[in-house]
Amino acid sequence: MKCLVIVCHPLRESLCGSLAAEAVSYLKTAGHSVEVRDLHEERFDPRLSAEERQSYYAERFAGNALSEEIKSLTETEMLVLVFPAWWFGFPAVLKGWFGRVWAPGHAYNHAADLSALKPKLQNLKQAYAITTMGSPWWVDYFVMLKPVYRTLRFALLGACAPKCRFKMISFYKCEKVSASRYEGFVTRIKKLLN
């Protein structure tokens, strides 16, 4: 499959960076065509410009500066997101990537009466999120009700690729990482992507 891996962590030597490398290695070994985009390394600008925002409901989205990123998204069959969940949300750069690259006319279309969005990511068959979180699992599940999962599954993919299969795994209590916990999580990544 044509696979796009989005990595979002400011530190290259982070746990996220290591987990992303494990995922990319596994995907390549499995024979997938893999494109890796490290948003921090590429210095992706998360700020939606005034011109881009004004064009959200125009006939054509003003995304010339994003043509390469949009092309990667619209052509991919498998999307893998690797990022830390900070304060039970997305890092600012990843949130900006969603706001700018998942654009009207490319990821979705507006309905004429501005009712439900019309999905356009027809190629996207599978999406996976691999996250790190400092909290224990039960806080994410029972206190916060899995906000990152719900936003990805129901807001983004629900609107833009509703038939896409989605799964997410999180490395909880990530400040304390033993070799055995790390290896166990890498095994989970391989099962996830298999």
Could you explain how this protein is built, in words?
The model has no long low-confidence stretch (mean pLDDT 96). The strands form 2 sheets. The protein has a 5-stranded parallel sheet with strand order 2-1-3-6-7, sandwiched between helices. By secondary structure, it is an alpha/beta fold. The longest helix is centred in the first third of the chain and has 15 residues, at 15-29. The protein is globular and about 55 Å long. 39% of the residues lie in helices and 19% in strands. Strand 4 (108-109) and strand 5 form a beta hairpin.
Provide a compact summary of the structure:
By secondary structure, the chain is α/β, with parallel strands linked by helices.
**What is the overall silhouette?**
globular
Total DSSP E strands: 7
Please identify the structural class as seen in this structure. Answer: alpha/beta
Uncertain spans = none
Helix content: 25-40%
Rounded radius of gyration (Å): 17 Å
Tally of contiguous helical segments? 7
Order of helices and strands: EHEHHEHEEEHHEH
How many angstroms does the end-to-end distance come to? 12 Å
Largest sheet, strands/sense/barrel: 5 strands, parallel
**Arrangement of strands in the largest sheet:** 2-1-3-6-7
